[in-house]
Amino acid sequence: MTSRIIAVLNQKGGVGKTTTTVNLAHALARMGKKITVIDFDPQSHLAVALGVVSKQRTGIDEIILGHATFAQQQIPVRENLNLIVAGPRLQEIEQLSQGGSHRGDLLRNALMSGTDQRDLVFIDCPPSSGILVANALFAAEELLVPMTSDYLALQGLSHLMGTIKKFETVLNKKYRLQLVMSRYIPTRRLSKDVVSTLKKYFPTQILATPIRETASLAECPSFGKTVFEYRPGWRSAKDFEALAGDFLEGRVM
After folding, report:
1. What residues does 121 pair with on adjacent strands?
2. CA torsion angle 54 179 128 53 (round to 10)
3. How do beta strands 81-84 and 75-78 pair?
4. What is the pLDDT of residue 91?
5. DSSP 15-67
6. H-run or E-run covering 174
7. Contact predicate 123/145, CB 8 Å
8. Residues 202-245: tens digit of each pLDDT
9. CA 148 – CA 152 distance, rounded (Å)
10. Which regions in the chain score pLDDT beneath 50?
């Protein structure tokens, strides 16, 4: 069995990458899928959101540097859901200046063995376009791009698509690209306008369920809980359950 490796990325900050990763991954784990999430941001927000204190704990940093294996660094955090933390040396990898194109291949090489016991591996990327994001793009076959419904997000997406196209050319591959509407406010006209614009350019790639903006989604990480633990049965939990189905079945808007 080959794992699906998905990079959750957007070079713009504040679009809900970590919120999407943690809650979608937990939704899929609750459906019985075996999931590993990789905290690929030196700020370690994903670990915090899952209630894991990771300051001195090694993680994906040591896997990339060849000092540990994928299997060794997984921490079971929920049923069917494992976490690999960022690790204190991930920041050093972001600042690597030697090794040329080989620097972009570190994560892909690290994930070539040991992932076959997992159905899905999600890489929660930092909001940048540096060496870590390059590694995620080398390693992943699928991209999940959380989008907020504002015009700055549209501009950011245009820049991101340029980056993705470059990688597709260099690596001679075509990513499976999906967008998810995050922090969506259905009563706002701008939200509908942005979705309408996106549909023109990505007619078959926007997952069917938008994740509505709620206070509970913003509050979850401070308790180290997913929305299913913090507010089970509330609309945010229902949104992510529906999104998980969309993701598995390819349902689009």
Report:
1. 5, 36
2. -10
3. antiparallel
4. 84
5. S-HHHHHHHHHHHHHHTT--EEEEE-STT-HHHHHTT---SS---HHHHHTTS
6. none
7. no
8. 999 999 999 999 999 999 999 999 999 998 888 999 999 999 99
9. 9
10. none
Length of the chain: 253
Number of neighbouring beta carbons within 10 Å of residue 181: 25
Place of tokens 């000092």: 67
pLDDT mean across residues, the chain: 89
Q: Is 6 helix (H, G, I), strand (E, B) or coil?
A: strand
For 56, 101, 190, 237, 241, the CA distances from 233, given in Å and listed in that order, are: 35, 47, 28, 6, 10
Token code pair at residue 193: 């306008």
Chain position carrying tokens 């993705």: 164
Cβ proximity of 121 and 83 under 8 Å: no
